[in-house]
Amino acid sequence: MNKTATILTCLLGVIFLSALVVAKPPRAAVKYPPGKWASSRPSSCPFEPSKDITGLEWTGRMQTYTDADTWYPSWAADGNLYSPWTDGVVNGVRCYSVPGPLKTGNAIITGEDPMKLTVTPLGVIKALADPYQARYPCGSLVYKGVWYYATYALDKTTYQWDTLGPMVGFRVSKDFGKTWTETPLTPAKPLFGESSKNGGKIKMGTPHVVDFGRDMQHSPDGKMYLVGHGTTRKDAPCTWVSGDQIYMARVTPTPENVNDVTKYEFFVGHDAKGQPVWAKDFAAIKPLLEWNERLGCVTITYNAPLKKFMLCTTNGGITGEGTFDTTILESDAITGPYRLIAHLPAFGAQAYFLNFPSKFISPDGRTVWLWYSANWQHKLPADPPGSRYALCVVELKLLK
Prior knowledge:
With 400 residues, this protein is mainly beta. Helix content is 5%, strand content 40%. The protein contains 1 helix and 24 strands. Strands 3, 4, 5, 6, 7 and 8 form a 6-stranded antiparallel beta sheet that branches. Strands 12, 13, 14, 15, 16 and 17 form a 6-stranded antiparallel beta sheet that branches. The protein has a 5-stranded antiparallel beta sheet with strand order 1-2-24-23-22, with no helix packed on it. A hairpin with a 5-residue loop joins strand 4 and strand 5. It starts with a helix and ends with a strand.
């Protein structure tokens, strides 16, 4: 081949490669940039739009902390936040709740500015899962100096951790996480007697403690409320991040009560006057909310200035992989009715474990900080930009 032919061949190669680059499909546009977030209401959505909080606006302020997930802060009387965490690294401390030496972590979060927090690990605890494969943190509450820390079980079958197991019970610490008394309950004999073995389904799955503010100051009756997700449909998917229904329970929090099912009451619906009805028998429990295959991992925070209960729930689909949808609701009463603030498809794009810490609600109730983790599969683009596998915090305005 002569020199001219060689040059021509190279030029043709460059043109061909350039064409490939140009022909490559552009990356999808960010759905959740700073500013007002567009929200849709699916045709199947059973919730009426809110008239008091009509949407969300991101101020552009965001921060991330650690390289771990499962953050559910409880605002203690000392002014600090205490939270479980797992599956990652916090200041050099490693903790994983999946096969291997199963462990769950805990941490203290200090600071008054959500953009300048300090997250300090307090230790990790071994957590047996038999007859399940994994054991994860869920409900957490620090009240009158006592830390109540719940865990739940998981199984992996066809997909990634796609079979939700029961909430086991509460371990208890009276010295802010330095030492713990383990729950007397086990995954085989859990608090509410539920099992996902042999085709069983969970109702009170991954339950979380309703955030009533500092040292539970806004609890209507001094009780700790738990909210969880699950299903009763035999063939329905029920994973750590997906289900059909939301359920609720309550108990007066003491080290003796929290692991005794006879001390609990369960929401069983409303009477003819619209008042909530509670029962002592877990078998009588009824859904607080229903929306098939749309209601997954759930949290509730009381926004005291607005006198609103704000609920976050995640739909992770049948597999728990790919993008997740977020739904945010509000209600004047903890037992509803709940109304739609925003439905955010592919938020994160894979955001989960969402909550609004009461410590960072503004005096007028209109500025809040959304906490979540995102993209546990790591391959998805960040949306909002900056979302990652960590503790993510973003400042939002609740629109009038």
